[in-house]
Design brief:
The structure holds 2 protein chains of 2 kinds. By secondary structure, chain A is mainly beta. Chain A has no helices and 9 strands. In chain A, β3 and β4 form a beta hairpin. In chain B, the strands form 2 sheets. In chain B, strands 2, 4, 5, 6, 9, 10 and 11 form a 7-stranded mixed β-sheet that branches. In chain B, strands 1-3-8-7 form a 4-stranded antiparallel β-sheet, with no helix packed on it. Chain B starts with a strand and ends with a strand. The chains are: A mainly beta, B mainly beta. The interface between A and B is medium-sized, with 24 and 35 residues.
């Protein structure tokens, strides 16, 4: 699985967009980009995933560069409840048992 | 739907004691996983079960055993607990049919080994 690099922490003002970057320069053609978050020692929560195209759901948007070597998770209007550790994970999905390899992630602090 | 449930929520053991962590899911998922999370670190995979009847080692399997009791339940056993196994343990499940597979996590079991 490709390795990812994320900044250790970021701050964001409440109501503003939070843009969380992730580098995955060794990503393979069949690997997806996943984002999960973990709020204060709870179990991680799936946010979004994508392969090539930009994706959007009710929680966030995922922007993947054309060469797929980096991506950005966008929380359009961050709230205090979005304070969490955000994990960027790349993973091929060609089999049962979708193992996830978690790095240290980015601590996002949303401030009022 | 309860999703993924784990018992117990908290546990304190003495070195050498044994215990089993229980996990159950009600989403009819094929794949189940056990992770541990040490303070300030990301999750690490201990064991997983891609489908009922199969189990495989993850990144940190030493000192643990697992049982996929049926499609719903996946237990993690510590035969002789050590202080290095003090951690938060998360169980997860996913549909497991290939393609992208969102994992659903339980609330965790906080284990302290003295």
């Amino acid at each position: 699985d490709a390795k990812t690099t994320q900044p250790p922490s970021m701050d964001c003002a409440e109501g503003r967009a939070a843009n969380l970057p992730c580098n995955h320069s060794t990503i393979s053609g069949n690997e997806y980009v996943y984002w999960y978050r973990q709020i204060h020692s709870q179990g991680p929560q799936y946010i979004i995933h994508g392969l090539k195209n930009n994706e959007t759901n009710e929680m966030a948007s995922l922007i993947i560069t054309e060469d797929r070597k980096s991506s950005t998770l966008i929380l359009p209007h961050a709230t205090l409840r979005d304070t969490a550790v955000y994990y960027c994970i790349v993973r091929a999905d060609m089999e049962y048992g979708n193992k996830l390899v978690f790095g240290a992630g980015t601590i996002l602090r949303v401030k009022s | 739907n309860a999703g993924v449930t784990q018992t117990p929520k908290f546990q304190v053991l003495k070195t050498g004691q044994s215990m089993t962590l229980q996990c159950a899911q009600d989403m009819n998922h094929n794949s189940m996983y056990w992770y541990r999370q040490d303070p300030g670190m990301g999750l690490r995979l201990i064991y997983y079960s891609a489908s009922e009847g199969t189990t495989d080692k993850g990144e940190v399997p030493n000192g643990y055993n697992v049982s996929r009791l049926n499609k719903r339940e996946f237990s993690l056993r510590l035969e002789s607990a050590a202080p290095s196994q003090t951690s938060v343990y998360f169980c997860a499940s996913s549909e497991g049919r290939g393609g992208y597979n969102e994992q659903f996590f339980g609330p965790g079991t906080r284990l302290t080994v003295l």
